[in-house]
Records
---
Amino acid sequence: MESIKIILLQRVAKLGQIGDIVNVKPGFARNYLFPQKIALRATKGNMKYFDDKRAQIEAANAETRAEAQKIAEKMKGVSISIVRQASDKGQLYGSVTRRDIANAIKNAGFIVTAGQVNLNAPIKLLGVYDVPIDLHPDVFVTVKLSIAKSEEEALLKIEAETPTEDQEA
């Protein structure tokens, strides 16, 4: 199995931390890590460049982490709703995808891309879901998502799922 060595310029889940030299498949590096400026090929020149710029790279990463932390604090407790047509049994006619959730979060006043929505598979049933959002490789926040046939029904579902102060005690 062919692989290439790279230097990570930021933390990547299940791969490594800033400055780690790891082996990855060439396609992953060429199609994702290099264009996103997440990694450099581990050559002598790039290793020297990384050592010279390490403090700047770590400072920039700490700054973006701090910004993501502020956004996460604002997003705590955010509930969004998506209205979809569904059968009497609750099966959606279609599905709710990462893009739909990202658009609903944008409508709530936060800037999130579909890539930041951590969803394993499209949602195909009515209900209330906890959806993790990856704001930064180190910062996550969970948003409550209600999928219903009407806006009123979505609000009722969220209220029923959210514990009140009396229930928490």
---
Amino acid sequence: MKIAIGCDHGALELKNTVVAHLEKKGYEVQDFGTYTLDSCDYPDYAAQAAKAVADGVCDKGIVLCTTGIGVSIAANKVKGIRCALLSDVMSARLTREHNDTNMMALGAGVVGQMLALEIIDTWLSTEFSHNERHQRRINKVMALEQD
């Protein structure tokens, strides 16, 4: 599985930890930056990661900033993306089972390193339920992009 990842300067340290963790687990990671602590604009990096997922270059994506809010909003502006802002393990599991999310966002200032890795592992290992009611709701959400 190939994972797109992107962050701003506020989450660089956590992103680097996540990349190392994912590679150790055997995932292929495409890192869209940022690569320095210089102040930067989170939409630039979140959009690149989201476009890679939407275009099928990557299977799933993870975006990070200080709160996770900005990158999740930016990623969700890309057609075909369902990005969930996560800060707990239960939501990580349920957003995959019920919403079939293809991206997730984390706030480096909200979750610590250990919790972040647990959230990511749960999100990546949980499959979509394929329950009819969940698919029906996803279809309705995705249809909103056509309006």
---
Amino acid sequence: MEIEFCLDQIDDVARQILPQLKNSIIRLEGVMGAGKTTLIKALANKIGLVDAVSSPTFSVVNTYLTHSDETIYHFDFYRIESPEEALDFGVEEYFDSGFLCFLEWSERIGPLLPQQYSTLELEVLNENTRKLRLIHN
């Protein structure tokens, strides 16, 4: 699946791709400023998030609850120096929880990724336009 969109259409894009997500582990790829956290916020809001989404850059993982008491984990591995750091805080237990996990900068923990995940690639076309690709492995 591939969608080209303007940033002000991100809520509509989230509504379109949410039913297409087949895995609980969702990798978001794109350069800094591509809109990864913004897309996660839009997806989480469509799911029925109670909390506000913010980037977990310094905390590595944020935990959110939905109105139906579901848990969502949002990871930002940008500051992780090695996969061992992620093991130290128990990343595998989060992945094994069955709850939805959104991952930013997941290439930093590559060997720890589960076998099944979906990838949302964001490509910056210009200041207001992005191309989104949904890939399942």
---
Amino acid sequence: MAKQTFIIGRAGELKLYDDTVSRRHAALEIEDGAMFLRDLDSRNGTYEIRDKVLVPFAGGAIERDQVFAFGECVRSVTQLLDMVAEHGGDLGGLDAPPVADPAAFDVTVVGLEVAPRPRLSAGDIIALLDHVDAAVSAGETLEDACREVGINVQRYERWCREHGASPGDRGRNDDDVRRENERLRKLVADLSLEREALKEALAKAAAKDARAAAAPPISLVRDGQS
């Protein structure tokens, strides 16, 4: 079969809507039952998530069980193939039955078991930052420590601005996020209860109206005449 190329990115055939993803971030190529992925000089890079680190990936052959981060947007190869099928692409020789649950793929990021999802979580990023800080405290340079986990110093500094410059700050930020998530969960639960109560009240009102509409007409009889 002829080689098919699908652009991954905010403006590609395989769209990833994330501000860390370039418009044309990477290319997925399918030819004769083989798959290849290559980065298109993206702003934030393409990485394979492997062995507890983000491994920079410039290009090469790929398999179904691999998981990649495009910037901070995470996708398994199986998920990319699902996107190809949704786009109407011909998988050609890649017609083996898909994995039952693509989200069941587990990858390890700095000791955390995470399933492929829209993007790296705050917990994943904080774990990477803590790993870098520990390496620097042990005597490594910041550049070397960042390189070990597959990021550059600019990304480290941006993540520090977003999540805290020290483990203590990150811990407080993480606590704030957990409290906010708990508040939002409670709010959603309360709204769900209110919605169910409203639905029940509307159902009762509708039933009452239906009974009233179905009731026989009432006639008054006086002196033998209606």
